[in-house]
Amino acid sequence: MVKLKNVRKVYNKTTVIDEMDLEIDKGKFVVLIGPSGCGKTTTLKMINRLIEPTSGSIFIDGEEITKVNPVLLRRKIGYVIQQIGLFPNMTIAQNIEVVPRLLKWPSEKRKKRTRELLELVGMDPDEYINRYPSELSGGQQQRIGVLRALAVEPPLILMDEPFGALDPITRETLQDEVKKIQKKLNKTVVFVTHDMDEALKMADIIVIMKDGKIIQMDSPEELLANPANDFVAEFIGKHRLKTDTELQTVEDVMKPNVVTVLKSKGTAESISLMRQKNVDSLIVTDDNGRLEGVVTIDKIRELGKTGKDISGLVERGVPVVKTDAEAKTAFDMLITGRLGFVIAVDDEGRVKGIVTKTSMVKALADIVWKGNENG
Ligand SMILES: Nc1ncnc2c1ncn2[C@@H]1O[C@H](COP(=O)(O)OP(=O)(O)OP(=O)(O)O)[C@@H](O)[C@H]1O
Ligand SMILES: [Mg+2]
User: Which atom of ligand 1 is nearest to the CA of 42?
Assistant: First the structure.
């Protein structure tokens, strides 16, 4: 589907992409990962011709891209840029329809497509099409960024750290959604991230880059089992946990930074906190930091009365686990549970963190990795 051959990019005598060869098969989810400045964004931008290589060639479906009309090229390629990049003065519908408009789709067809797309990510079209980006939560804006890239059904989608700024719950949900869409529509995705956990979860193939070069390109399993060199080992190793997996507790696998709100707070204040923290849900506590439940932006919008506190909107049946319980307990709850997270509390019931599927992948990675090291 995509092929880079001897691609170099030089800026003022500095080589930022060095003789890169890369082949990506149709329908694969390929993740580029590496330290800041290693050339991930540059690679994506060369694929859709926002940047021209200094030398070498890039092919899409066997055609050299410099020979393809750029409009036709962009029709084949969806692009989610490193910041969300919605146009603030355009409505959600207008944002999604940027490329369909460029391609002169008739208005009926555009409208139909926009509705389909919003439904794909569970956002009610009637409620959202006429809103502006500032009237959406961070997670919802991020979804629109993804939908915009999907609008004309391109076979190839480039995503540059699309979930960088999101909280764990929203990030987890969006990862699941994107993966599901990619499989369902059989798209080829090139996805950039800094986050090894995200790479391990999402990728069919992981491409580890450093200083403009590909260091290793393999499936997650292969990468964990046989890192090509010390750099790769260390890159994965940063994500290692305790040595003895038996003794891992919930505390070892949870993410400690969660956004909480007191149940006595008002609906308006909660929404503004969600905006500020880029989240779609908040963990609700009492005055002593003890868990009450979760409140979501949808619930507030649906049932919230201005001037009222959120206590009546709290969903209480959320899965809870003690921080000192075995990590496996939380994993079992995640696998069998309806929600993508489990909240970790101390003996007093105070909120300490959250366990997500990403935390689980992290722990599994460690087991594979350790297994290899112990021979
Ligand atoms: N227009 C430019 N002129 C000169 N140097 C540039 C230009 N754009 C990028 N670079 C350099 O090229 C290198 C690769 O940049 P690139 O944006 O591809 O990195 P990245 O891997 O995406 O990093 P990050 O993870 O921080 O987004 C960096 O050293 C950067 O400073
Ligand atoms: Mg970048």
Answer: 18
Pair 206, 272 in one domain: no
Read off the tokens for 92.
């959600």
Residue 343 pLDDT > 50: yes
- Going by CA atoms, what residue is nearest to atom 2 of ligand 1? 11
Residue 59: phi and psi, rounded to 5, are: -120, 140
Taking CB atoms and a 6 Å cutoff, what residues make up the pocket around ligand 1?
11, 16, 36-42, 194
pLDDT computed for residue 121 by the predictor: 82
CATH number at 73 reads 3.40.50.300
Q: Which residue has better confidence, 261 or 362?
A: 261
Residue predicted with more confidence, 24 or 166: 24
CA distances from 36 to 30, 192, 202, 208, 303 (A): 18, 11, 20, 12, 43
Residue 368 belongs to some domain of the structure = no
Contact 261, 282 (CB under 8 A): yes
**Structural domain of 79:** 2-237
Among 182, 209, 237, give the residue marking a domain's end: 237
Quick check: 205 and 216 in contact, CB under 8 A?
no
Contact 147, 120 (CB under 8 A): yes
Most distant CA pair in the chain, distance: 66
